[in-house]
Write a structure and sequence with these properties.
This protein is of the alpha+beta class and 163 residues long. The chain contains four helices and five strands, in the order H-H-E-E-H-E-H-E-E. The protein has a single domain, classed as Cytidine Deaminase, domain 2, CATH 3.40.140.
Length: 163
């Protein structure tokens, strides 16, 4: 019996040395005021507005656009910032952000500093990998857009039949 008491006491002491994790999502935008995405041009408009402060000609950025079940925008999350030649994307971070924000649908987007709007093999591979990973947690990947620093120029994987 003394062994049990010491074990319980040791377990309680160990718990005091564990970090508490807090998770929150706090939106200041009313659902009725959120942008609704119905097409690649709708998503491009939101993405273009969100990317205005970025140096799109200098380096590659990778983001996700998070949406609810009605395709209303919950927010954007930067997943990567790379060089002029590429960017590493962590699928685990992508899934985590999607779940924490209670997203039901997402759109990937990144820029090509070169101005070339054609998807690379790496772009296609990350899209496929992301779609498979999201399916496991029942989140839909609706599109992947490649943008450039020139307003109005983008490629949609959905429109091109690549999704």
């Amino acid at each position: 019996m003394k062994t049990t008491v010491k074990t319980v006491k040791a377990d309680l002491e160990a718990i005091n040395h564990i970090a508490e994790v807090s998770v929150s999502y706090n939106s200041k935008i009313k659902p009725s005021d959120r942008a609704k995405i119905s097409s690649s041009s709708d998503s491009y408009k939101v993405i273009w507005d969100a990317s205005k402060a970025l140096q799109l000609e200098l380096k590659e950025f990778f983001y996700i656009l998070l949406m609810d079940r009605a395709n209303k925008v919950l927010g954007v999350v930067r997943l990567g910032e790379g060089s002029a030649f590429g960017c590493v994307v962590d699928i685990q971070q992508l899934i985590r952000a999607s779940i924490l924000c209670n997203a039901q649908n997402i759109i990937l987007w990144h820029n090509h500093p070169s101005g070339n709007m054609n998807p690379s093999e790496a772009d296609k591979a990350i899209t496929k990998k992301t779609k498979q990973a999201l399916a496991l947690v029942e989140i839909n990947l609706l599109d992947h857009l490649i943008i450039t620093s020139e307003e109005g120029r983008y490629t949609s994987f959905q429109d091109e039949g690549l999704l």
